Amino acid sequence: MNHVITCPNGHRVTVTEVHLGKRVSCPTCGDSFLVPEIIPEVQPTAAPSSNPPGRLFSSASASLRNMETRKAMLLTGRLLWGLGLVSVILSRGCDVVAVRAVDSANSRVKLEQLVFDEKWDKQENELERKLEAIRQKEKLEPEDSKEMTNLSDQLSKLRKDRSRAADVFRQTTLRNLQFAATQATYSHAIGSYWRAVLFVCGSLLVAIGLIITSATAEGAERWVCLAALVILMFSLYVFGLGWLTLPGFSALK
Question: Where do the structural domains in the chain lie, given as residue ranges?
Fold first, then answer.
């Protein structure tokens, strides 16, 4: 069995069982010395760790901090693009509702005018039909002449009543409806400015949130965010479709 000992000068010397209790020479310095008969067993020492406990703890703490930071950024990104998406949908939805309100107000004016005309046209057409039926007779009786005179008077009176009713209708119902339609149009024009601001802010939040999420997410979520970001950039800032198709813009043209 080989043993490693040191000479008086500190050099390492390898000896065997046959050298125990004898003098040997150090191959390094040449000095001779006596090898003891009993060489104590030396427990092998573990190699010094390249990562002492303090460094390992610091590395683990840094990894934990990086993980927490990554999770916080990922959560922030998700919240931003979620809030931005809600803002975009809200702005577009409110704009569509406002456009429908303008259309409804304008349609109400046309509907009331149509109902008014239909009411009086129906009565006038009925009297004209009766007059035409009497005129088409080959021989008129005295009663027919009297009936024609009566129908003509009714038709004349009906037209005068219609004229007076039309004046009242234009001054009251129709005027109120036209004012409501005009008010809805200008209210939509004023509100569409703030809805456009909300749309712009929401689209920016979506873009920022997608950038943060794609930088911190992993796997399919990252690729989905990158694809959504590309679509968003092209639709808003390259082709401008996001701006041109705003309901508020198209309604004011």
Answer: 3-34, 70-251
